[in-house]
Every structure is written in structure tokens, then in C-alpha cells.
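Final paragraph of the annual report: two paired records, presented back to back.
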Amino acid sequence: MTDRIEAAAAELRPLLQEFILWARENAPGSDSGLVGSVALWHRLIASDDAGRWRTADLRAVLLDRMPQVVEDPEAAAEGIVPAVRSYLTFLSDTDRLAKGSSPLRDLLTELDRIEDDVVDAMEDAVSDDDYDDEDDDQVEGLGDFEPFADELAALPTIRLRPDSELAAAARASVLIGKARDLAVWVGTARRVGEENLLTDAEIAEAVAALGFPPPAADGGPLADSVPALWNVWNLAIDLDFLQPEGEDTVSADPDAAEWPFDDDDDVLDAWLTGLHSIDYGDPELDDEEATIALSGLTRALLLRVLLAGGSKSLADLRSELAEAAAEYDDLGAEAWAAATKRYGDPLNPVLDWLCGYGMVEVEHEHVRLTPLGTEGLVHLVDEEDIELDARPAIDAMTALDLLAFSAELPEEEADAEFDAWMELREPGQAAGELLRAAAEDDADALVRVQAASVVGSLGEAAVPAWREALDEPSLRPYAATHLAQLGVDDVPAPTQADTHWLILDMLTISAGLGRPEFVGSLDDIGPASTLIPLLDVIWKVRHPHLEELLEAIAKAHPDRQVGKAAKRALFKARSHEN
């Protein structure tokens, strides 16, 4: 079912984009998300034609299906009927209400008749606690990642390349280049048709502009013989290279011609925006049900290559995916045979699209994920809320990356990351990079403590970096302390304020671990007789977390006298600041 949903959603996307534009002027406030869901399920369960609506469809979709699938029943109770009313009006006003539909007047009357029932059904769904059982009953699809969640979580750490390298690879994407060429060809305010977006003459021009072979005339509509053109058209829309400008015109975005962009961030943003175009690589067959049976094949291939460590033989992929297609859909084996007849190999269109988007390379009968493909897969898996251990490559990891990632790792694993990173640098260089990274945010005590700990282990080689850190207020206490321990004479000795800063950093970290750990850290400092004098002076330190720590001490410490001292210190700190 998931694969069929994906195929139907792709089919409906242009229509829904036009509804959104229409609604801005004619039905502002209409919930396009609800409209999209209703249109999708209408297409799946009620009509092969998205524009053919009968009064009976409203009850089947809004009462029988939507309460089961809508993500926010409470919002749907309020907005779904007005949204559908706007959508049906849009279909009628734009002549998209197909032959065989009930008159708009009858559809709207039926909507009014069932509105209370729809609201009741949505409200019942809000209080329904049986969502887990419904999820268990869902049928897995060929392109689903969830069945492989455990295998994905068990993969070794996936190393990601730096943005500069990924952007360079994205700039070389053949398909994005074709989407740009198509947008440039479309130009400004090109009229489009209802049945076929372009005339036969325009199709021939567009195909030539993209460098595709001329379409073969087979007696049918020319638009049906150029699926590759429409895939690029949809990609151009996904990338915002093409934008609808009303009911019957489309224009190129002014920035489209500038691809490939100069800024790496802009390039990667565009590439990721078009990432879901991988679904256009799925085989397209004459029979719609067969096409749906192989929907998700591109994702399934990517997933299996990732699970194989980034490379897998074509023969193994072909065998596994043929078996999976037959398992996930009753028509899977038949669809696989039809795709073999049409393409020679059902994986040919999949690999053509993935190679064109820069995600895989095929060499010596093996499919290999590119760094760009690995990056894209990590994003797709993350969208499914599936655990995956992905980090920057060691040679591409900045000091700040290292400190941030290591803060989330077990100690032994964090030490291994540091060791691997340090092997690529001279100790003095590493010390400088780590301390400069730690100085970027004076509110991040954990990163600061980590950096100081690692640099402190480098001994004499770190002296120049420590000297430089004396000029950074947040690092001065660490620098002064370590330089004194190293016996460096011509530097200022640590002050009481430096010691107090170190205490506040330690308390900041323990406060983030929870109340028991925080109270334990206070106990480590000493009894009330030690804490109260400390609180009487520590309020003078300009630490970014001073006030919140004093508030936390006042609330958490079991000794009332310590709590009172913390409140006095907080008052003084605030008064001094003001």
C-alpha cells in the first residue's frame, strides 16, 4: 500500500500545486494538507480519475477512510469539510470536474449533509487509543525503510564528506542540469493544456532542448511516449525551477538559469530539495497496477546497497529485488517480467535516474553509493525517524564537529574519535584548533571542558595555544591553570575568579544531567560551611549561566541556609548587572 500511495501522490502533485495557487485568491485559509490527503485517498479507493467525484465518494473518503489516516483528527474536525468544499469548487471552476462526476451543487449539498458525521468521526479518532494496532496492520511496501530499522541501526559508523565536496558533486548532476535547461526553454508565462501540458510541437522542442532522442510516433498521444520528459518536468517543479502562475501558465524561476549556483549551501539545499525525485526512477509500465507494484524500487535498491556497505553486485540486487517485488505485491512477479520486457532489466531506469542525480555509480557490474548518495540516504533514513550512526569523516571533521559529536558518545568511543582526529595533525596545531572551537560559544561549558581536557593532555606542545587562549575570557581560567601546571613563568597566575569560573562550568554540566547529579556536584564542593562563603563571592563572576545556576542551587540544595545564600547571591548578581 505504501508504494501505491507514493505513486498516486506523485500523480496528484501538479493538480494540488495548482489548487494551492487558486486557493490563495479564491479560498484563503483552506488547509492544503487536508486537501492533499483527501485527494490522495479519493484517488486510491474511490476513482481512477482524480477529477471524477460522485456524492458517494464523499462518504467513502471522509467517513470511512480519513478518520483512520489523518495525522491530526482534532484539526481535521474543524477544517476538513471547508477544505474539501474549496477543492471541489476549484475542480469545477477550472473545468477539472471530470465527466461522470455529480454536479457541484449535489456534491456540496452532500458535504453539508455529512458534515456533522465527519466531525463526530474525527472526534472519535482523537480519543481512540488503538493507533498501535492499526500501525501493525499496515502492509509493508517495496520501498519502506522501517522493516530494516534494526539492520540500519547495527551498521558501522557512516562517514560523511564535507559540504564543499558534496556541493561539487551536486553541481555535476546531469538531471538537475536538464531541469535547468527545461526551465530555460519554458521561459516566462508559457501556456499549458489540461490534458497534455505541452502540444506535440512543444514536446518535440523540449525533448530536443534536453538532448533526448526524438519521440517515436506509435499512433497514440505524443505525450504518452516521453515519460523521461515529464520526470524532468516534475523534478524542475520540485526544485522550484518551474512555478505555476495560474490555471494555465507556468514560468521559469529567475534563479533557475543560474544553476549551478556559486554558494555551496545553496547548491546542497537545491539538491536536497529534489532528493525525493529518486521515486521517478521507478519503472513506468503500460499497466498502472503493474507500475504501482514496482513503486519504491529505487529506494529499495539504495537501501540494499547501503546495508551491503556501500557496494553490491547487480546480479545480487536483481535477484533480491525481484524476490522482494513478488513478496510485497501480488502483481510483483508479473510487473517484474513486464519491466524486463520493456527495459531489458527493471533496474535500468532506476540506475539511470540515480546515476543522473549523482547518487550511485555502476562499474564492473557493481553498484556503488557515491558520497552524495550516502548523504542523501542518511537524510531519507532520518526523515523516517530511524536510528543511523552517521558522522563527518575524520579527515573532514572540524574541531567543533569533533567536540560536538564526542559530547554525545560513550567515553571509550569519544576517545577513539579524538585519537583518530589527532593523528592527522601536529599536537600544536590540534591544540589551537580545539581551543578556538571552544571559544566560539562561551555558553557551551561541555565543549569547553572537553577541549581543555584534550589540550591539557598534549603537554608542552600546547603552550602556544594556551597562551593565545589567555585572551579569551571563557578560556582564560583553563589557560592560566594549565600554564601554571606546566611551570610557564611569564604568564599571569590563576586568580580566585578563574577558580570560580571553573566551578561554574562544572556545575553547568552537572545541572544538565539532572537534579541528583547537580546536588552531588554541590556536595563535592563541600558542606554548607564551604558553600555559603563561596556563594557570597561567586556572584561577581560574569559567567553566562550564573543566574540560572544560583536559582537551581536555591531550589535544589537540601540545606535551607545554602538556599538563602544562593538567593542573596542571585539578587546581588542581578542588581550588579542592572
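The closing record of the year follows.
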Amino acid sequence: MLLERDATTSTIVSAVTAWNPRSAKSGGHPGWSGTLSPSDATPPDLSGYACALRQTDVMRTRWLFADQLGPHFLDDPGQQVLLIESKAVFRRRAFHRQKAHLVLSALRHRAQDDSVRLVRAETYAQGVGNQPLTVCHPTSRAARGLVRRLPDVEMLPPRGFVTAPQDFVAWAGGRDHLRLEDFYRHARRLHGVLMDGAEPAGGRWNLDADNRQPPPRGAQRLDVPAPPEIVEDEIDHEVRAELDRWQREDGIEFVGNDGPRLFPATRQEALARLRHFIEHRLPMFGPYEDAMLAGDPWMAHSMLSPAINLGLLDPAEVIEAAEDAYRSGAAPLAGVEGFIRQILGWRDFIWHLYWYFEPRYRAVNELKARKELPKWFADLNADAVEARCLSDVLAGVRDRGWVHHIPRLMVLGNYAMQRGWRPGAVSDWFHRCFVDGYEWVMTANVVGMSQYADGGRMSSKPYAAGGAYVHRMSDYCGGCRYDPKVRAGDDACPYTAGYWNFLARHEREFAGNHRMAQPLRGLHRLTDLEALVEQEKARGSRAP
């Protein structure tokens, strides 16, 4: 298992995979314009490149954004690094307090290296000044626009993802619909991941049928060891005191509760979490990856997304470690395949869609959902909510800035879509409130998949479900004041009633979708639909 990777080697490999003459001839894609140049039609001279890597004194300083903190963003371990801590970032949005802490802690821990200089400034432009720099392609359009405006900053191709932009563009070109399953199989072949020759390991591409079980009956927690605890240090204490001062003196606002740091802020912490997950939690990940338990927010999930999205881990090394566990017999194929699907498949897919789709994609709203987020939801006021699943998940966001993907999609996103909340506002909420949330992460994840606001460009049906799904996949319904089987009346489950009301409201839009044919037939069999619709109209935006 290769967890510590030579930075020079990984950069040369990155240079090889970033060059693709086929995509260079095609002219690339508007979303990536400015990243690729005519020189991409010529293979890089790796011998000269390797020679340059040894001459660190002639290399430009590398500016690292706060989500580019790992060694794979450098050309040499000793390369000089500039980090900028921009206060304006925290003025623009009310981020979760623990997210702000994690980002600042990660920046300041990275600045402990002798080759790193940390500049604290109001804006990135002020921090850059007039010095010549290189920077890897940023992860947002706003940051890329800033880099392009800075005269002495050279932008390099993106790192921190597995599939190169031109390879995605070559795959996506000419397709009417972009689907994860198709991209994931392409990426498996392209990168030789979980492949036995030309065939997928085990003979099947998708092992979902072996995963996604309900939680063990009667269990309060999964029988897996907890991940290594994060031990805060003086840097964390300094960050906490500074955030208190920002709130008190500068009027900078946050959401959510402060608390002990729960996620890695250093590469060493991230590697420890990765090793522990591979050895102790990955074997149990697959069966219960979609299950929810009120007493176990972590389940067998890796909790590595904050570290990967900060750039502390290279997704390639995470994938390699997981595949090594399968090849050595330490973890079952189904769980390993499900985990790798999330990183090689979903994470890369979402990243590329952010750039491939037009900039106005963030504002698409095919279902015409125009209601604003109610105050109780925006403020993470879980105590105002009686529905047990929503209250517990919202409390998880408030207290940890993290819940795993099923509460995000089927509890939070599902509820927002049923109520017709504005997709852009929902996306912004996820961006601000989750420790692993970034604009590129949440745009397609929330606007496209969770809220189905693009009308099906990236998913074949809306992820809408009633209380029966929550009842099957969790222990939340036991002890809840609402009954998942009841859709009308005082005991009506907000998800069950909301589901049918959502279908009734959008029957015309879904009429041509074959995957929605069965639910729409069920809608027509309801004898109390009119009363249900009136009930949900009266419920309005108040907390359920």
C-alpha cells in the first residue's frame, strides 16, 4: 500500500496524464478555456521537466489556495510556497464556525514548514502583490477569474482530481445526457482501477445490489472502531480565539456551533485517518453505506472528504489504498467498489460538471422552485423540528458541520425539493454549512441531483421519497411523533405527505419520464389527494 508518495514522481505522472493530443486537436471546451494551450498537442519533455525539478532555485514560488495543501500540488518537496489567508472570504458568507476553524487551522499548520510563507490579507490580490507565482488551476470560477487578472501569476493545469479535463471533454462530447455510471466505467478503464485485464474485477461494474442494506436490526451503533481522535494544539487554540475576536470586533458572522476539531488539518492526521479507515472501517462500509442510525452519525464512512477537499490527500492514493485492500483480501470487493465509485466516479464527475456546464447552470430552476429557506432551517434550529429524522440530521449539521451522503440527499435535500425551496439558496446553504462544502462540490450535487433543477441533465429522475424510505433505511421513525404510513392528518409524516404533494405539483413535468411512471400511477390512485394538497399548503414553511 503506497500512502507516502514521492512528489516529483506524482507530478511527472500528472504531466503525462494531463496531455492528450486527441482533446488538444478538438479545441477543448469553453468551460476549460484558458487551461489548455496549443502546446498541449505536443507531449511534455519529461527529461527536461525532471531536470527542472531538481533546480528548485529557478522555480517560481507556488501559490496554494486553501484547498490545495498537499504535496501533489508542488513540483518539488522543497519548492517555495505562498499561502494567503483572506479575511474577505469570511466576510462574504456566513460559514459554519467549525468549517472556518478547519480551513484556518489547515492553512496555519501548513505554514509551519520552512519553505512556506503565510500572508494574512484582506483579499487574495493584496496578498499576492506583484511577485511572480505559479498556481494550480483553482476550484471556482471566481478564483480562476482572479488568477487570470493577475499579471505575474501563471496558471497550471488542475491537480487533486484523477481524470484530466480533456479526457472528460472527449468522453462527454456529443452526449445528450451525462450519467455517473457511464463516466465511472470510462474512468475505470482509463485509469486501470479495479480491472482484471479488460474486464471489471469480479465480472461486474456495479455491485450496489450487494451494498445498501438497512441498518442492523436493534443496533444503536455499527460494530466498528472509532477513527483516530484529533488532538488540538496551540494553532487550534489561536484560531479559535481569533474567530471569537472576528465575531466580537469585526462583525463577521458564522452559523452552527463551535466545537472540538473533528477532521484532519494536517497531512499526517489525514494519512492516519486513511490508514485507519482502510484497515478497520472499509470492510464494513459497503453493506451500510446508505443506512442511518440516530446514535451513530459516522457509521463506517471514511470521513475523508474534508481532508481530500482541502488537498491534504491525493484522491489517487486513496483509491490505490482501497484497491490494495481488496487485492490483499482485507476488504470485500463490493465495499471497495462502492467506495472507489464515490471518489473516482462521483467526486471527479461533479468536479468536471462544474466546468463543463455553462456558468449560468448554478441558477437553473426547471421546477420553478422559488421559496426561500425558512429561518429555522437557515439557522440550523434543530430544536424547532419535531420530525425525528430531520431534527437529528439538522442537529448534526449544527454541531459537526457534517453528515454522510444519505442524510444530505434523502433527509435534507429531499425535504427542500418537496417544499419548493430555491435551488440556488439550497446549494449556497450546503456550501456554507458543511466542512467539506465548496462551490464546485455543491453546484451539480445540489442543483442537479438533489433538487433536480436542471430537468435531468445529470440524473434520470428526482431523488424524492416518502417516509417509507427513511423508515426502511434508519431507526428514526421509531419514537417519532409522525407515522411514515400516514399522509394526511395530525400524524401525517412530513416526508410522506410532502412526497405526494411534490408529485401532484409537478405531474406535468414528470409525465414523459418513464422512471416516474409508476409513482404517477400511484398518485392517481389516492382518494385523499385534494385534502393532502390543502394540508401541505397550510403547513407552509413552518418547521415540521
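The CA atoms of residues 206 and 319 lie 16 Å apart. This concludes the annual technical report; the extension proposal builds directly on these records.
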